[in-house]
Amino acid sequence: MSATTIIADIAKRARIAARTLAASSGDERNQLLLNIADELEKNLDLILKANQLDMDAAKSAGISLSLQDRLLLTEKRIKEMAAATRDIAKLADPLGKVLVERNLANGLNLKQKSVPFGVVGMVYEARPNVTVDAAVILIKSGNAALLRGSSTASNSNQALITVMKKAFTNAKISEEVLQIIPSDDRATATALLTARGLVDLVIPRGSAQLIRSVIDEATVPTIETGAGVCHVYVDKTADLEKAVAILINSKCDRPSVCNAAETLLVHQDIAEKFLPIALNALTLAGVTINADNASKVIADKLNIKVNPATEASWSTEYGSLEINVAQVSDVMGAIDHIAKYGTNHTEAIVAEDKEAISIFTSLNDCAAIMVNASTRFTDGGQMGFGAEIGISNQKLHARGPMGLEQMTTTTWIVSGNGQIRQ
Description:
By secondary structure, the protein is an alpha/beta fold. Helix content is 42%, strand content 19%.
């Protein structure tokens, strides 16, 4: 059977199953999510054994440590997935909201209501937690989910789908609203991306290469999630103790994710004072440092090992314990650097001066701006969405972490009493 035929069959079954979601109440969908959370915790051993198979294969294949970290599931991470699922169940129902209502002079009543997209495909790499995040967000927002993870996580993803489907026992919602797309053949990804008319929306989540591939190939509408070349700018008015803590958290808390900082920008007026502190803290944290010439001079005086930054360094998303360091003339210099090398994801400023903060927040074109806070807060769970289906850095429909509301569209309902257009 061809990949196109396989995807067509899966998508058709998902669309039929999606009717059971459309007919369900918010309480029924919430209960299903609570059941999924329970099943995740009941089946820890099954999930961890499947994940170990993927981890063993990844290590044998020499996959990078950052990708191994994305792939790894632990008891703590699975329990966090269950907790996030319960948090989503507590959130307001995104469906059936009346966004606009008005009466026309001819007696017609107009209502714009929130409704599901229908059938949503996800194409993602490595991180099996996306399987759960996407599934529960899409279920709660009334969408059937076609989940196409990478072959590196195939055992983990299959186990998670199997476990989540146990939650559908005795539910009115069909378990076929959750569909896993085979990942052993790249042709299934292409078939999903080109299943226009069968699939309503596709969302890529992963590396810049994956996202670009999806955008280039897809004929199905897409929401583009973005790579994260994120910056921390330390202004001359910054509280340096805050700045070091924010820098280390932004870079080191979990360096493999898209909201980790990749470049430190320092106002030149405080470089002699701040860089010795920052470079030493980064070195102690095991971070490889690539510095511009001015910053390297300071590092050399202190016998702190740094590498000379190259032009390619500034636009690199490392996903590991590696960072760039550069001095800038002022807040506008930071903005210019970010505009040239950033990816419109998350930018942070550490400053006490209100004018510098105002300029930074007004002129940075990105999905999220952190003021005296870590870049790691650009996250659906941290921002009160329970979890996220991805972080969009485009400008259409959704921007930033995408939760329940971003997984809905609208329908206009026009009610009359026999009116005809003259």
